[in-house]
Amino acid sequence: MTTTAPAGSWESLVPKLSDEVLDAVNVMGFTEMTPVQAGAIPLFMKNKDVVVEAVTGSGKTLSFLIPILEKIHRRSRKLAPAEIGAIVISPTRELATQITKVLSEFEPFFPNIKHQLMIGGETSLEEDIETFSQTFPDILIGTPGRLEDILSQKRSGVNVKELEVLVLDEADRLLDMGFAVSLNKIMSLLPKQRRTGLFSATMTDGLSELVRAGLRNPVRVVVKVEDLVGGGGQRTPASLHIGYILCSTSQKLLLLTHLLRQEAANKKTIVYFATCASVDYFYKLLSRLTQLSGFAIHSLHGKMETKKRSLTFKSFTNIPAGSPGILLCTDVASRGLDIPDVDFVVQVDPPQDPKAFTHRCGRAGRAGREGKAIVFLVKGKEETYIDFLKVRKVPIHKWGWSGGPEIIEDVQDDDDEDMTAEEAEVALTAKIIKEEGEDDSENAEFLRGVQKIVMTDRDLHDKGTMAYVSFIRSYSKHEASFIFRSRDLDLGALARGYGLLRLPKMPELKNEKSGGGIEGFVPAEIDMDKYKYQDKQKEAVRVKKLAEHKAKQAEKEKQAALNGDSKKRKPINKASAWSEKQEAKERKLERQLKKQRKRDYLKRKANGEIPEGDDAKDGEGEDDNSDDEDGDEDESGSKDNNKDDREDEDDWEELQNEERLAKKVKKGKMSSRDFDKQVGNMFADL
Ligand code: ADP
Ligand code: MG
What we know:
binds magnesium ion, Rossmann fold, 3 domains, 7-stranded parallel β-sheet, disordered C terminus
């Protein structure tokens, strides 16, 4: 039995469904309703506001699309061209697109009911307005930002007077992502006598608030797995096996490689990382590992171009069941999406938001398929997460190498000649887990190989550095911060595990005994001047800049010698010219990070997450003790003191401006999204 366990025939519903809907679900091959459908559809059709809480994969989409279609279909007066009957809001573009796809399947049966996708990205606001005025849809499906834009502008011509239904899909996620202001704005523009439905896998405090504010005597429909499989009270499907693996910080990549070879050969697999930058980097890196050459690897994250995102999503979705395919992604990009036939989920980094854990696992084991989900936890540091999950009723077990919850304690020696290739792989993986010591020679060998790959393309090192920095940053944002403690992060082992050649300059590394290294990390020997980009254009630019830079430095030295001006500046050693430029870049990154922290702080303050007057923890503190705030927008690396002052002033003004904007957010006069846009938030959707 599964979440889609039959819960009665469609024909048996009261009020009765239209023949059109019955035909449509019949064509889709759904002979019976799922429990959530049986519970939610009649209520939503009977003019009730509903709050529907049911596990991922339980069939919520049809639970709101069918009532919407029925309501519009049954209207006595048809909707006038510019009038719309329903709006569905989704947190991500992909999810909105997917809902549209499901709705399109009803088109042959309801040729007169039209819909339009409004998500931004691929089309401009103007284009959306243009499409609207040509097709006059009855249902709008979109993301909060674009819908807010459309609805708040008169010239868009959208008439909501007759709107009957508003649906928020993945409602908790909408709130998590800071869309509350946009949502309130949208709701304020819609008629009060409409019906509202909140659909979500988890109920949060923020949601309860929204319910109190925007819904009228809502009926709650809660479908727990216990209703479906009996007992347990867990929120994950029974066909899903969830496991954890304890490893050391630097072993994750090797472990992932083994796991994929072992488990993913005939499965569709999703691998989760903490940040967009990590997905970018590991996508590039894993694609070049010979160990994984047999796999089609895809990547999806929030900062990808929309076109590329939808292409990737489509091509991954189209991989047939039982065929190998790997998707690397972040939470933002994957929430609520129904990617069919996923059998295996690996969480290389546990999610910042504990609720996301179940959502991630829930990608596998959908609609009754057997699924496996594994999370990597750092031994000696993150074990508490296991108990934490158990308290949250997640049935998690130590991962066994036969794929079940069993643990293989004794690892066979390698010289067991009878082992098949697969068995050998299993034994090997188990062995990695056993050898968590830093002298783990297989891992050391593997990471040397990774570094070699990184050395073939400077772009990999750039991406690796960004990934490393963003990971450290995201770690400090774990909600379960008592488990995931930033100060416990082994930064040296982490850098090694990422295959970095050298460490970036960042505040987190400042206190470490510097000089290029921290404990557990030895910088690779590489001449940075000769370290090339594989991309010809990029490399040409680099070579040109390097030459210019060297010439400039030489000229400066000459001038300095002539002026006898040796007090201000140490003579510049030619060999270090490039690394100085590199350092300037890194300082810039460091500065951006600091500003970013400040912004986050302001934003959290604006959202009321930090009480007023609690300024002791102000992110400014970090600015105060930074003595190396150079003006380093200047790529040539020159250090002009006046310029530094100017830039510091600019920074200050910028921060003041951001503070003003943050106040607006707090007062509800601006959405978090606009805030991010205005301040150029580089980590807006990590
Ligand atoms: P949720 O939004 O609850 O996560 P979805 O609406 O995305 O779930 O549905 C999950 C999967 O279940 C989809 O592949 C969908 O086609 C399938 N499904 C939906 N309704 C039924 C049904 N009545 N019978 C069988 N499968 C269904
Ligand atoms: Mg859904």
